[in-house]
Specification:
The structure is a single chain. Strands 8-7-11-9-10 form a five-stranded mixed β-sheet. Strands 3-2-1-4 form a four-stranded parallel β-sheet, with helices on both faces. Strands 5-6 form a two-stranded antiparallel sheet. Helices cover 41% and strands 13% of the residues. By secondary structure, the protein is an alpha/beta fold. It has three domains: 211 residues, 3-Layer(aba) Sandwich (Rossmann fold), CATH 3.40.50; 94 residues, Ubiquitin-like (UB roll); 104 residues, NADH-ubiquinone oxidoreductase 51kDa subunit, iron-sulphur binding domain (de novo design (two linked rop proteins), Up-down Bundle). Helix 7 links the parallel strand 2 and strand 3. The structure holds flavin mononucleotide (FMN) and iron/sulfur cluster. Iron/sulfur cluster binds next to helix 16 and helix 18.
């Protein structure tokens, strides 16, 4: 059984309430941190090696160091609870079952950053979690952990929950800030970065829910202790949301030393492939990261066991590797069609593009159309090359990384499964188009998908 820092108490009856959470040792990190100098708290976070859990894996302590400290200018902490990446549902679990761990982490982080007003920006669809968080905030306030003069230290802090309207792009930190300010969630051109000019032009740190929840154990046990867990630059534990053709879909807290094979097949985690089917492929870090075929998922191109951490999952770059991303582990068995799967993702990204940049706005639309044609047996072989060309022209040419996020899955699917794309083109008679534009196959390796 691996070490648990975030979910250890998740199954304690009543842990959602302040009373039980406190009895189980909750809010100790606030008592400890508020006696420390703010720079010391930041130093502990730096020592921990914690990397942002929202996708990019940027070192949290370093990010906190960047926040501009202009005398008289308020600063803000914003927690990114947008979690709209397909396949990712770990923040939901944390907020729903142990809301106080997020509030506790936020108080410590707000103190370290000098934020007297902090926000949780939550995706619109998580409506019931808004109530859970607001209840936790009210309880923390009632018990002196929020509001004015917290624990008599002179530190004031309020936390507000802001509900988004259900746009994936509002998870991108600058779009999130625009939305929080009450505007349309269009990403901003960077620089300036939020650490200099964020919410209402004030220095702002945007961090993921899991990142902020991890601050609790870093302060309780010390940054050095946290850094001892895991391996290399993948310190601490990581929440993975696993879904797809496995026996036990769910949210798992892993020590980042375990192998991908252990994660998929051991009973402690995914419990193996459902119905004894063969593993075909996996998207290891949420829909934006490159898909890996089974052989490259379990073993790197160097022949080493692939591990569940930042370095190992990206070993080989995008040619033979992928990314840890947001930890959304999507597993496909031998029955799944990679073309249809890629089309579904392309449709999502086309829908979610904010439309500000031409390569993303136009390119996502063209990728969706070409993929649908390939899927339905209405394409030429040269369309596969055209698709490749379009994704290359999107990548790196846009204001925000949504363009890359739309391009990478397409690139990886063609790179690793080109034969499957060609099969569709060469076997148009095997595809029957439905009214929904999704194809059914005469070939038994494909599952009919209409629901
Ligand atoms: C299109 C898009 C969607 C994103 N969605 C999320 C999200 O839902 N949650 C999140 O924490 N980060 C998301 N990010 C990453 C954020 O921009 C930002 O890097 C992150 O919140 C920083 O927190 P961290 O350093 O703790 O990871 C998204 C990025 C992009 C480009
Ligand atoms: S890359 Fe796409 S989502 Fe991002 S700013 Fe450009 S058009 Fe909008």
């Amino acid at each position: 059984m691996g070490v648990k820092l975030l979910l250890e108490k998740a199954h304690v009856v009543g842990i959602r309430t302040y009373e039980v959470y406190r009895r189980e040792g909750g809010y100790r990190s606030v008592e400890k941190a508020l006696k420390m100098a703010t720079t010391y708290v930041v130093e502990e976070v730096k020592k921990s090696g914690l990397r942002g859990r929202g996708g990019a894996g940027f070192p949290t302590g370093l990010k906190w160091n960047f926040i501009a400290k202009t005398e008289g200018v308020p600063r803000h902490l914003v927690v990114n609870a947008d979690e709209s990446e397909p396949g990712t549902f770990k923040d939901r679990y944390l907020m729903e079952f142990i809301p106080h761990i997020l509030i506790e982490g936020m108080i410590v982080s707000s103190y370290a950053l000098g934020s007297n007003v902090s926000y949780i920006y939550i995706r619109g669809e998580y409506a019931w979690i808004v109530d859970i968080l607001e209840q936790a905030i009210a309880e923390a306030k009632l018990n002196g952990f929020l509001g004015k003069n917290i624990l008599g230290t002179g530190f004031d802090c309020e936390i507000y929950v802001h509900r988004g309207a259900g746009a994936y792009i509002c998870g991108e930190e600058t779009a999130l800030i625009e939305s929080l300010e009450g505007k349309r969630g269009n990403p901003r051109i960077k620089p300036p970065f939020p650490a200099v000019k964020g919410v209402w032009g004030r220095p702002t740190v945007v961090n993921n829910v899991e990142t902020i929840a991890a601050i609790v154990s870093i302060i309780n046990n010390g940054g050095d202790e946290y850094a001892k867990i895991g391996i290399g630059k993948s310190t601490g534990t990581k929440l993975m949301s696993a879904c797809g053709n496995i026996n036990k879909p769910g949210v798992y807290e892993i020590d980042m030393t375990i192998s991908v094979e252990e994660f998929i097949y051991s009973d402690e985690y995914c419990g193996g492939m459902a119905n004894g089917k063969k593993l075909k492929a996996c998207i290891p870090g949420g829909s934006s990261v490159p898909i890996l075929p089974a052989n490259l998922l379990l073993t790197t191109a160097k022949g080493e066991k692939r591990l569940m951490n930042y370095e190992s999952l990206s070993d080989g770059g995008f040619t033979t590797g992928s990314m840890m991303g947001s930890g959304g582990f999507i597993i496909l068995n031998e029955d799944q069609c990679v073309v249809k799967h890629t089309y579904t993702l392309a449709r999502f990204y086309r829908h979610e593009s904010c439309g500000q940049c031409s390569p993303c706005r136009e390119g996502t639309g063209w990728m969706e159309k070409i993929l649908l044609n390939i899927e339905n047996g209405k394409a030429k072989l040269s369309d596969i090359d055209l698709l490749w060309d379009i994704q290359r022209k999107i990548e790196g040419n846009t204001i925000c990384p949504l363009g890359d996020a739309a391009a990478w899955p397409v690139a990886a699917a063609i790179r690793h499964f080109r034969d499957e794309f060609e099969w569709h083109v060469k076997n148009p008679e095997a595809c029957l188009t439905s009214n929904y534009g999704l194809a059914h196959y005469a070939d038994p390796i494909h599952i009919p998908v209409l629901t």
